[in-house]
Amino acid sequence: MRDLFGYVGRMFITFLQDLTSIFHLLKETLVQTALLVTDRKKRKQARILSSVDEIGSFSLALVLLVSSLLGIGLTVVIAFNLDDLGLLNAIPGVVVVTVYRFLAPLLVGIIVAGRMGAAFTARIGTMKVTEEVLALEVMAISPVRFLVVQRFLGMVIALPALTVLGSFTAVFASLLFCVSRFGMGPNVYLTGILDVLTPTDVLSGAVKAFVYAVSIVMIGCYRGLIVEGSAEEVGKATMVTVVWSTLTIVVLDTVLTTAFYG
Amino acid sequence: MFTIQNIVKKYGERAVLNGLSFSAEERKITYILGTSGGGKSTLLKIMIGAVRPDAGEVLYEGRDITKVPERELDPYRRKIGMLFQQGALINNLTVAENIALPMREHTALDESIIKIMIKMKLELVGLRDFEDLMPSQLSGGMQRRVALARALALDPSIIFFDEPTSGLDPIGRSVITKLIADLNRLMGISCIVVSHAVEEALRTADRIVILSLGKVVASGTPQEIRQSSEPLVQQFITGSPDGPISFRASSKDFREDLLVG
Considering the entire predicted model, what is its pTM? Predict the structure, then answer.
C-alpha cells in the first residue's frame, strides 16, 4: 500500500515537473515566434507554409475519410432513436451541433496528435540522439526557434483548418445519407441546419482546435527535446507523446465543451 | 587560453570527472587522450558550455564559462566551432544549406556572398562538388569533413573535435588528422581534440593531456609523453592490456560478489 502511495506520488511530481517544463517551452516558443514574425529575412527562411502543407497534406485524406464515416454513423444512431418519436426532421440540427461543437474537434485532434505529434517527437528525438540539437546550440542557434516555432505556426494554422473541413465533411456525408436513406429533401436538411446552427457553434470548434494544436505541438516537441541516449528512447518518447497528447485532448475537450455551454 | 581547474562531474553516484585540471594554449593543438568512457566527451561538453560541472571552473579570456548564464553564452559560441563525433549535420538540409546555416543566422551577408563562402569552406575540406547532396548520401568521413566546413563557417578561433577519426578507414583518418594540422598551421586556429588515437596524437599534437578515472595523469609535449616513465602512460601509448588500468572495470571483489549475490 505504501509502495502504491510512493508510486502515485512520484508520478504526480514527475507530471508537475513536465507540466512546468512544457509551459516554459511554450513561453520560449511564443517569444521566439514573435522575434521571427517581426524579422523579414528569418520569416522567409522559416518556411511556415511548407510546415502547414506538411501537416495538412499528411492528415487531410485521413481526416476526410474519418469525418465522412463519422457523419454517417452518427446519423444512423440518431435516426434510429428519433424515428420512433417521429422526429426525423430534427436529425440535421442534432448532427450539425454535435459535429461542430464536439465530435469533429475531438476526432481531428486525436488523428493529428497520432499522426503529427508522434512525428515531431520522432524527428526531434532523433536529432537529439545524433547530437544535431547540440550542434545547433553550439552554433548559437536556438533549437526552439529552429525546430519548434515553425511546427507551432504550421500546426495552429493547419489544425483549425482541418477541423473546419472535417466538420463540413461530416455534415455533408450526413446530408447525403439522409437524402438517400430517408428520401429527405436536401433543402429540408439545410433548413434543419440553419434553424439550429449559431456562430458560437462554429467558433467553439475552431477555438478548441487552436487549443489542441498548441497542446500537440508542445507535447510532441517537448518529448523530443528531452530524449537522451539511444534510438530506443526515441521510440519510447514517441509512444508517450501519442498517449499524452490523446489524453490531454480528451480532458481539454470535456473542459471546453462544458465551458462553452456554461 | 583555456585554464581548466578542478572540474568535478557526477552522473548519479559515479564521478566521471574527478578534480581535473589542465590548460590549453592559444594557436596550439591540444590532444586530450583517455580510454573510452573516461569522461572525455563530458569534458568537451563542459568546455562548450553544454553541460554544467558540479564543481570547478573553465576560464576562457578571464571568464568562467561554467558560470555564464545560457543566454549570454552566444557570443562565446560564435567564436568557437565544434566537430561532432558523427558530424551532426542537419539531416534534412543539403551540404550547402548546412554550411550556410550559421552564416545566415549570424551575419547579414548577401546570399551571393554566402554562396561564394560555401564554396571556399568546402574547398578547404576538399569537397567542392558536393554542395547539393544530402548528408545521408555521403560517407562517414565525408560527413565529418562537411561538418568541419560548417564549423569553419564563421571563422572561429577555436575548434573542438570530438573523436574526429574514430570509426574511419586509415585514409579517412589521415585526411582528418592532416586537416587538423593544416587548420592550425595555416590559419592559426586553436584545436582541442578529444581522442583515443594515440599515434595521431603523438604525430600532430603540440601538447597531450592523458586522462584516467576522471583525472589528468600526464601532460606534456609528444616527446615528453613518449619518454614518460609513468607506467600508466606507457600502458596507454603501447596499448598493453596489462598495467595500472585493469581489464576488469568493477571494483568489488569477485568472490564476495558471487557469494553475496
Answer: 0.87
